[in-house]
Design a protein that fits this description.
ABC transporter involved in vitamin B12 uptake, BtuC, 4 strands, about 290 residues
């Protein structure tokens, strides 16, 4: 029971990060490999605000604001000038932005790990199993955030505009949709989700380093590909699946050393069986 809850909790974090990848890819048709480092910036924003104010809510709000602004700034300065460039140029730029953010964090905060305590939460007894309250809060908030995002995409005018840009950017522009604004909004939403992910991550692992976002970012990208890159429900399913598998593998001593290999092995198997991912759709190119 405890392993399942922790797996769902970790999967929710992966899903939040994967949503940032899949939204940007689905709408802007690019992979923002600097997304994981925005999580790291959010973690340091929380740590810095907590040290100044001691207020957890203020720290979370500050992280959301900083990550959102950083996402918008990154899109405007680094990615928008490459809108018509080759995918390789965009990929190299994304990797460059990732190393830039890591280097800036190392210059400001140093290379050593910084610990932080977000509240003092105990554990509760559920069906005879002790489960940390932080895990339950993380799981509940992840469900709320992902539900709200799904409703925003499917029920609001801006969400419908994002879907239109995702299907055909040129046609959406002819219909009067401001594609630049929509892509910027996508980066803003994805970066805000990264701030929430950094909050939940610190609740589970209360320490931060300049490379904090690297492995969660890679695993979340794996989750997005497993679910079907560009599919919001796919990112959720992929994240939850990966988190549950990771926690169950870690709970078995014989499998624990091979947990990462098992996760990436699952990716290979799914791509061999269904190259577009679990919920991905094969796009037909018009000629």
């Amino acid at each position: 029971m405890s392993t399942l809850v922790n797996g769902l909790c970790l999967g929710g974090i992966y899903a939040l990060i994967a949503l940032g990848y899949t939204m940007v890819y689905g709408i802007a048709k690019m992979l923002n490999f600097a997304h994981g480092d925005i999580i790291m910036i959010g973690a340091y924003a929380i740590i810095s605000t907590l040290s100044l104010t001691g207020n957890t809510l203020a720290a979370i709000i500050a992280a959301i604001i900083i990550c959102t602004l950083l996402g918008v700034l990154t899109e405007r300065l680094a990615y928008r000038p490459l809108r018509g460039a080759s995918p390789l140029a965009v990929l190299i730029t994304a990797i460059g932005v990732s190393y830039l953010l890591q280097s800036i964090a190392q210059l400001i905060f140093g290379a050593q790990s910084i610990t932080v305590e977000i509240g003092s939460l105990n554990a509760v007894n559920v069906l005879g199993v002790s489960i940390p309250v932080s895990s339950l809060i993380t799981l509940a908030l992840c469900v709320v955030i992902m539900t709200a995002l799904t409703l925003f995409i499917t029920k609001t005018k801006l969400g419908c505009a994002m879907l239109a840009v995702s299907e055909d950017r040129a046609a959406a522009q002819l219909m009067g949709i401001n594609t630049n604004m929509i892509i910027t909004l996508t980066f803003a939403i994805g970066s805000a989700l990264a701030a929430f992910a950094s909050t939940f991550y610190l609740m589970q692992i209360p320490s931060a380093t300049p490379t904090l976002g690297s492995m969660p970012g890679i695993k979340a990208f794996t989750a997005a590909v497993i679910g079907g890159i560009g599919s919001i429900p796919g990112a959720m399913i992929g994240g939850i699946l990966l988190g549950v598998i990771e926690k169950f593998a870690l709970s078995v001593p014989a499998l624990a050393p091979y947990t990462t290999a098992i996760e990436f092995g699952l990716l290979i198997i799914i791509l061999l069986v269904k190259p577009t991912g679990l919920l991905g759709k094969k796009r037909r190119e018009k000629v």
